[in-house]
Amino acid sequence: MSDVMSDTVGSPSAPAAAPAREVPFFTQASSFEALWPEIARQVNKVMDRGKYSHGRQVAQLEKAIAAYTGAPYAIGVNNGTDALVLLLRAAGVEPGQEVVVPAFSFVASASSVVLARAKPVFADIDPETYSLDPEAAAAAVTPRTAAIMPVHLFWQMADMRGILEVARRHDVAVLEDSAEAIGMRWNGVHAGLLGKGGVLSFFPTKTLGALGDAGMILTGDPAVAERAAILRHHGRMGKTIDHIAGISNLSGVSGTNSKMDDIQAAVLLAKLTRLDQDIARRAELAAAYDERLRDVPGVLRTPVVAQREDETNPVFYVYLIEVEDRDALAAHLADQGIGTEIYYPTPLHLQPCFADLGHRPGDFPNAEAACARTIALPFYPDLTIDDVDRVCDVIRAFYTGRTT
Using one digit for the tens of pLDDT, what is the confidence trace for 90-108? Predict the structure, then answer.
């Protein structure tokens, strides 16, 4: 009896296996904890003044972003998509005109053109930068083209020398979808300021992210700036600048309600104080991933920074790799508690909302290949090197057949 009891009652049991450490695709908990005193100070200003939209904090953020980017004009709006739509309209793109956009991007790059009542015309990407290929853009230009819209994706700018030359040759505008590109510069000029204008998104996951949606238009053209400021506020002349009064003055332009909330501006003002620090941390994390994934079988490519004659600087917003069996790897990582994102599962020309444009698989092979092979790994300043080690160990195990 005692022998039986010793096997079933009172005998020491094997320790339970520790659960695998989860690594979310994105979190900013630690950053917000550290920044909370400054965030609270900025938010309290909003509460004390009692103006929660289109107020003084928004005006201060516009000035701060203008100073950081070198933009002569920075116009705060409700989100990055609105920024694109209003930029298109402010820059003079008319209904029925065409705008050349890359086939590989977030849907807003093309849907913004539709919302501005123009027509998106797709072109293929450079497979190295994932951005609009200048030669493909040139081939897409027609007599109806009003603008070319390059998208600066993930960690570097599109080939702006080539795109600006195409635009000059065809006498069309360049409008930059620089939503992901805060901190990126081309020969010292900030993204969004090489053409007629550009935009920033402050969606929470962005390099400079709010607690919700917010966006901004950047331009050096005073006419574009004035029109954008009017369009964001129901066609009214009122601006966030303190000395401008009388917001009831109507401009005769049909606008929309895309004013930025002061709470988001307050958060962004606080976070702007550590933007350069966050950019540097992102570079460290990208280098750590590069080193650990360099010889992993199944990893086809880690991020490539294009070698150019112009001076450019990478700013890592997303860490994107190309892999074999992408969907199976994503499922395996999810099973291990590791978050990922697919940028982008379907190229724009094959999305149902653009079916009327008549494209078929094979029309833009570089964009289609990127959609089939790319996966974004966890990447944000709160990520630790231990987290990077875990992600890379799981990826290596997946491709080598080992268990983790």
Answer: 999 999 999 999 999 999 9
The structure tokens listed for 197 are 């204008």
Q: Take residue 287 and report the two structure tokens written for it.
A: 């280098």
Cβ–Cβ < 8 Å for 329, 300: no
119 is catalytic: no
Parse the chain into domains and list their residue ranges. 29-272, 275-400
322: left (phi over 0), alpha (psi -120 to 50) or beta: beta
Q: Count Cβ atoms within 10 A of the Cβ of residue 166 and give its class: 0-12 exposed, 13-18 middle, 19 or more buried.
A: buried
User: How long a stretch of residues is the chain?
Assistant: 404
Cα 125 from Cα 370, distance rounded (Å):
9
CA 302/CA 388 separation, integer angstroms? 14
Which helix (H) or strand (E) segment holds residue 123: the answer is: strand 119-123
Same fold, 29-272 and 275-400: no
Q: Select from 170, 173, 125 the least CA-distant residue to 152.
A: 125
Of 103, 180, 112, 188, the closest CA to residue 140 belongs to: 103
Tell me the percentage of the chain whose pLDDT exceeds 90. 78
Ramachandran class of 187: left when φ > 0, alpha when ψ lies in -120 to 50, beta otherwise: left
d(CA 54, CA 32): 24
CATH architecture of structural domain 29-272: 3-Layer(aba) Sandwich (3.40)
Alpha-carbon gap, residue 7 to 19, rounded angstroms = 26
Tokens 């080598």 found at: 400
Output the pTM of the full model.
0.89
Q: Are 56 and 242 in contact (CB under 8 A)?
A: yes
Please tell me which residue in 196, 206, 259, 271 is annotated as part of the active site: 206
Q: Between 3.90.550.10, 1.10.3370.10, 3.90.1150.10, 3.30.1330.10, what CATH number should domain 275-400 receive?
A: 3.90.1150.10
- Please give the angle made by the CA atoms of 340, 341 and 342, to the nearest 5 degrees: 130
What pairing do the DSSP bridges indicate for beta strands 215-219 and 299-301?
unpaired
Q: What is the pLDDT of residues 263-298, one digit of tens each?
A: 999 999 999 999 999 999 999 999 999 999 999 999
Q: Give the up-direction half-sphere exposure of residue 304: CA atoms within 13 A in the CB hemisphere.
A: 13
What 3-state DSSP class applies to 180?
A: coil
User: How far lies 180's CA from each of 109, 156, 254, 316, in Å?
Assistant: 12, 9, 29, 9
